[in-house]
Amino acid sequence: MNNLLDTDQLWIEFTNFPDTVELDEDKIQKAIELSDTVANTTRKWQVYLQALALFSFEEWLQQREPGIAIQKQSASTFQPQYANVIDAVCHLQVGEFQVCLIPTLFFSDEAVTFPRAIVDLPEFADCFYIVIALSEDLGLAATQGFLRYDQLLNYKTQLQAEMDWTYQLPLSWFNREPDQLLLYLQCLEPAAIALPEIPANRQATLARMQAAIFNLLPQLNHRPLWQGLTWEQGIAVLTTPDLLHWLSQSFRENLSDHLSDLLQILTQRAINVRHWLGNLRDEVMQEMFWELLPASSPLRRSEASPVRDLDEILAEISRIHQLEIPAIAVRAYRDITLEHRLRLFVVTCPLPETQEWMLLLILQAIPGDRPTHNITLRISDRIEVLAEEALQPDMMEDYIFIQVVGDNDDRFLATITSATGSVQSLPPFEFSPD
Q: Hey, how many other C-beta atoms are within 10 angstroms of the C-beta on 59?
């Protein structure tokens, strides 16, 4: 009997909304499929609600104003790294405006829960915030109210952040007329709602908190960020898409090495090896004692030198592994002491007829100082550890190599580790246009 009364009450409350949309089987199935793309099982319900709100809003807009275009793929719900941490549909492109959908099951309450990130962080700001009420029992969804960003700013001083990084916004602040929202979407100039600029110091903030983030993120174990980080640390993570991607993949094992590499890729100055094509040396290269090598020459083959060693190694790699090195490739090296004396060669060049570039790293034991235990060379990019090779005492060759290919946005980090735990990381390599 109580369930029947509750359902009747829900129905009465929903009839107060001007427009409703059915939560039919198609929407529900699509929402389930989208929630299944999130690896963190504890987040599937929240993503399911986001998807229901999105598909319901899309149908409502199509019914009321089919001429207003909507681009779903821009929304955060379709990007697991954001859906994993933000309980809202951010950056949904509707006409010329970005809107944010806030799903709620508690449409009879006098307040609605907003993630703190969409209020405080410019990276998640949108022009309109639209509350979508959902009822699976009735199979209905409705637009409960909307708030413009500039109006939200006026109310911001009245907000008090909760421990779980949320705000409670009174529904009395919201415009309850869907027709007014449609009028704004059709007639308002986008410049009338100015969104904030993203601060330029995000990288510096992340660098300052790098050690703490490295220690704390792996301990979250799929718990919400607020349970393991301060809000300041949370800002550094939430505003770094690559770290959010790492979190969305953290169910995989052995990701601690990659987190360490990723933080260095994101915070360290990189060596732009594109400069080497013009025989240029940037500041990072000089600080790290890299030396450019001249092209191969028969006149130097009898001389004991890094040039001759590299020529011989490249000839052997080409013969055994069928790895062709373009003639335009430039070469450099630097010596490293990691319990033993090592030499790291770098060979790089753009790849013909593509927008990609090649990076070949060769780690050689300097003659007369062969390691007595394994030395590992690891290469990572923003996404994952790409490759690892070990220089072993019983190997016939006195070198190992790794080749990677990237585009102009890629950075690669080389890390050399001894069996005793000593580590040597180098500044990232990039091939960036000036």
A: 17
Q: What pLDDT score does 68 carry? A: 95
pLDDT in tens, 362-383: 999 987 777 778 899 999 999 9
Q: What percent of the chain has pLDDT over 90?
A: 64
Query: In 105-183, which ranges are E strands?
Result: 111-115, 128-135, 140-148, 166-170
Burial of 397 (0-12, 13-18, 19+ CB in 10 A): middle
Which one, of 124, 116, 123, lies nearest residue 165 by Cα? 116
- The two tokens of residue 138 are 């009735």
Count how many Cα atoms sit within 13 Å of the Cα of residue 225 in the half-sphere of its side chain. 26
Three-class secondary structure of residue 75 per DSSP: coil
CA 41/CA 282 separation, integer angstroms: 46
Strand partners, 429: 271, 412
- DSSP-assigned letter for residue 378: E
Cβ neighbours for 100, distance < 8 A, ≥ 6 positions apart: 88, 89, 90, 91, 92, 118, 124, 126, 128, 129, 130
Helix ranges (H only) for 134-291 are: 149-155, 178-187, 202-208, 210-220, 231-238, 241-248, 256-267, 283-287
User: How many Cβ atoms are within 10 Å of 33's Cβ, its own excluded?
Assistant: 11
Residue 159: is its pLDDT beyond 80?
A: yes
Residues in the chain: 434
Q: What is the mean pLDDT of the chain?
A: 89
Q: How far apart are CA 17 and CA 23, in angstroms?
A: 15
**Which of 265, 285, 289, 262 has its CA nearest to residue 274?**
285
Q: Is the pLDDT of residue 1 over 50?
A: no
Quote the crossing angle between the two packed helices 25-35 and 44-64, to the nearest 10°. Answer: 140
State residue 205's pLDDT score.
93
SS3 at position 318: helix
**Predicted pLDDT of residue 231:** 97
Question: For residue 296, what is the DSSP state?
Answer: P
How far, in whole angstroms, is CA 395 from its chain's centroid? 39
Q: How far is 434 from 431, CA to CA, in rounded Å?
A: 9
Q: What is the pLDDT of residues 12-54, one digit of tens each?
A: 555 566 678 999 999 999 999 999 988 888 899 999 999 999 9
pLDDT at 2: 45
